[in-house]
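Reopening this ticket.

The earlier resolution said the output was attached, but the attachment link was broken on my side. Pasting everything inline this time so it's all in one place.
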Amino acid sequence: MRRGRTAGAGVEVVVVGRGRTYRRAVVATATTILVAITSALSTPAGAAAMVLADGREVDGAAVTAVQGRVPYGAVPADGRGARGGTPHGRGPDGTTADGRGARGGTMADGRGARGGTMADGRGARGGTTADGRGARGGTAADSREARGGTTAGSREARGGTAADGRGARGGTPHGRGPDGAAMDHAPSRRYPVSVELASLTPAVVRQGGELRISGRVTNTSGRRVGAARIGVRIGASGAIDTRGGLATVARRTLLTRADGPEVADRTARLAPLPTGAERGFRLTVPVPDLELDGAGAYALTVHVVRADGAGAGTVLGLTRTHLSAYPDATRLEPLRTTVLWPVLDTPRMEALTLRTQDSVLPVFRDDQLTAAFGPGGRLRRLVEMGRGQPVTWVLDPDLIVQARAMAVGYRVARTPGDTDPQQATEGKGGAAAAGWLAALRAAVRGREVIVLPYADPDLASLARGGGAPLAGLLRRASRTGRKAVARVLGVHARAGVGWPAGGELDDGIARYAKGLGLDTVLASGAGVASAGELVSEGATDDGAVSLEGGTTALRYDAAIASQLFASHPAAGASGAPARLRLRQRLLAETLTAARELPYARRELVMVPPRRMPLAVGRVLLTVVAEGRKAGWLEPAGFAAALRKPTTGRLRGFDGYPLARHASELPPSRLAAVVRDRLRMRALAKVLSDARATAASVGAALARSVATAWRADPAGAASYQRGVSRYLTASIASVRLVPKSTVVVTGGSATIPVTVDNGLQQDLTGVELRVLSSRPERLTARDRAMPVQASRAVSRTVRIRVEAYANGPVRLTAQLYTTADGRPWGAPMTFTADVRSVPSGAVIFVLGGTALIVLAVAFRLRRTRRP
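Inline output:
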């Protein structure tokens, strides 16, 4: 038996025997090559598939049947007997409808398929399997044994892509963002034309009316695309019943039977497109023509197909979104929806301050908050957008403190982390900060407000990295911040709420949060389970859960959070497609969640990113308004979501994204913060106004462990180093001025020692001690002299000494704190040259020395007697 392969068409031909059979095989091979060449020439570059009249897709070639015979490389109506080609309704991998006799392609049951795709993957080599059993080098649906390919579930995938990222090795989780959240992507651009939707009105369709769609198409291929038409399809299976089904629709790239038939007579003509050309389009479809079968989310596909010529019906491009329908007669129990509205930012204020005669001016790392607080800035727009909306405000007290400091007066460091306040320049954002505080005060009046711990500390990093010594500091800072919010905004904010990064919660984080006085923790529903869940794991997570130890976990919806965290749509027209895709997906998610248990009273908590982009916030408010108007969402407050928690447990974070663990604050940095706290305590002992400095440095230490630094590890390291340098410079600024030699004349004298106070406040709480290396020649009469010095001045302290003999004596001067008697700074050693000691003093010293010698000799003599 001999085997030949046609390289051009990628078709394997098995030749058995000789003679006429051999000649027939040769003829068949030649015919296959000719058909493949003809198909390639008749199909425009980049065209991926043809769509038949019934919506089934043919990839790469038209279906031709001449006198009932099916040529090689083509597909019969039922897909039976196809060889080396693509069957009805399948993509470029060549899948047959029933798989009988397919070679080099794909079979429904996969029996005997080589180099292709099988439905169950039995025996497949180098191809794709539906469940991945035994597949090698290909793609598996759940990838239980797939190697080197792409996996949908990736439970044991190696070197591939996983849909949920669990257990993937050497690859990238499918559709995951930097925080591990699942993302929706537009269909990959395998087609020569890209399709983007700019608007879809109405967002939720009702009984009648029209669905208006607009967008643009772009020729992304290297060749001219001929005349085409744009059409609409609704998913053949009707309303999507599960939230997992929504993700499946979003991941699909090729046009299949599941997309349903094209809505008849509701298409738009598209003129030929030169290379790189872009053209807008509009479609209007009466809602009854969509033939929707009730409330629910439907897959909506907008496609471009060739309108005429030899390749008529060939798919040129497509895009998908979700269409939510809620007929007027629908009566679902609305989801009680709590929407958090975070107003947070990265810390900007340093530990450094500049003292003047009248005030103490804080120093900021940069002046970026000026733009954020000003008109059109992110923080200003967030406040304006959230005013009057049914949201729960989430505030960081540190941001309020910073805004208040800017409004009163502040300075900006020459470089971040600079230790010289004199080099700082005047800040320009006082008016912007004052205006922002006024707008925030008006927005939160009468609304529900949550105040996070001061500077929003990274609970997960602190719990795992040894942050126990910082718990007391964080508790005190949080009490101060809570009072500041009440004083500046005039509201009674709810405290005792923690927000771990990514909603991660385990026993250690729960215990640490409890130690900080946090009774409630916002947690992803993926990690917390209630004892009596009404729906299976992976569906909508709802309600508060009471955990062991007295902590209440308020679960927020993980699927919605993943969409919000992964979306960063741009402002303006360029971001319209991404905003539309996010809006329709969130509407579909919430509606499908309501349909899970249509008559049960349930809670839904929606949590956006901490530094929420404006476009995401706008979409979130639109979704809540549309769902509320339709009837499946009902706004609720934070307190209502916490009402009547159920008993539950922690699920754990199996497959938790490594990227999130990698972004945690390293233990070495936390250890440095702990050391800085000890040094701050030492500095406070020598200051006349220790409370102000302790508050400034303590707030900076709390900012050093803020969750916001996860997005900026370089900034986190820079900020912590700046606090350390400030403490080092402050401690070093109280020092003894070096000297080399002093001359002591006479028996009694005073030796001057200069203490330099480089601090910006008066120096107290220290004393000076001087020790002699030759006390028989010179001793200090004053064992300890208290030192007081005004800010930024030097003070000379005079130590009284007694000289007994001429000659050099080494003296050591050292500062000590009076509170605990510990050394401060480095000692200073100098020489005292004793001269002109009176003879009487010398005789007195010599006589005393002689007496001592005689006494010692007499004692030794008596000791030696028997």
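Reporter confirms the inline version is readable. The first helix runs from residue 20 to 42. The first strand starts at residue 2 and ends at 6.
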